[in-house]
Amino acid sequence: MRVLNVDAVRGFALFGIFAVNVTFMASGYPGNLVTDPAFDSAVDHAVRMLSSVLIDMKFYVLFSFLFGYSFTLQMGAAFPARTLRRLGGLFALGALHTVFLYGGDILTTYAIAGLALFFLRNVRDRTAIRIALALYAVVLLSMIASGLLVDRSAFLPSEAEALANGAAATQALLGGWSANIGEHLAGLPLLILQAVTLQGPTALALFLLGMVAGRRQWLSGVRGDEPVLRRIQAIGFPVGLLGGIVYAASGGNGNTLAVAASVATAPLLAAAYVATLLRMAVVREPLAPAGRMALTNYLGQSVIGLIVFTGIGFGLAGEFSPLGLFGFVLVVFGGQLVVSALWMRRFRYGPMEWVLRWVTYGRRPALLLLTREPAAAGAPDHGSTTGSGPPR
User: Fold this and answer.
1) Backbone φ and ψ of 368, nearest 5°
2) Alpha helices in 101-226 (DSSP H)
3) What are the transmembrane regions (predicted)?
């Protein structure tokens, strides 16, 4: 049994994830918290501002929530063993992704946070919600305390140094395998720090909320005309947009308090996006196939970025303006929608979903739709994907 709404929301989240990640794939400046001086026009700044307000940190929230939601669809006999194998496979894919494709991987973080979710799988809904809120509160309070009490300028390089580092990082992107793998490995300490202090705890909190929603099947019977969807929009858009504006106007990732404002309000804006999507049936159908093979599409985005921007491929790092980069995202994601729809007409799973399912069940699953796959005892096929996605 598939849940169209879950697939559609996951497909929608893929777009936002790529729109954020591609900025780090295409240039070394964003990772050093500065903008490329080659793109300093009013249009460039406007596009960056809109991205900060509307996209940054919002779609990671959706993927995390859906991971927890899909977790409930996979329960059955032999669930513990299958889940542990699945998380191990996800971690291995994430490690390979980090080293060879993109240093901003989230799969490894999801695998570890997913292990915590596994051990919390039997808690009551009320307890799960309390733990989620506590985790989120601890993250926010620690960020606020850090923003108020810690002088980040003592730890961060000066603007001139950051610009020099950005130029060097862009040059590394233009190198071959050795230079790119070296950059990915050099970024591991920061990746781990982010996972421990921000992405891991918030992901687990959203996993738990998604698990509660999955238990209650909140997305299964949504038609699109429910009054609650309009109420979510009425609250989520003004509060979420205000938080995004504060984040963007206060310096974005370079200001801890600005990041805290975004973290606090991003779930509300993400919820408003989902409510809007669920009210637009015409949009859900095209997005669902991409959501069904989200892991393949997520990794595919990194492969495309590697080929287009690095010296391993066309070497176009530093050549795209913010507006041009957004156009690139639209073209690539549009292509993924088409390819996903064509692929799912013939196959049961996306390529990487098929591999992960093989690891999960310990036997090779049938791939073609016309091939009958024997069902393992107590292991119904809910057709869920990893529910995973990248950071930011």
Assistant:
1) -70, 145
2) 107-119, 125-149, 159-173, 177-186, 188-194, 200-215
3) 12-29, 59-79, 91-119, 131-150, 191-212, 232-250, 256-278, 298-317, 323-344
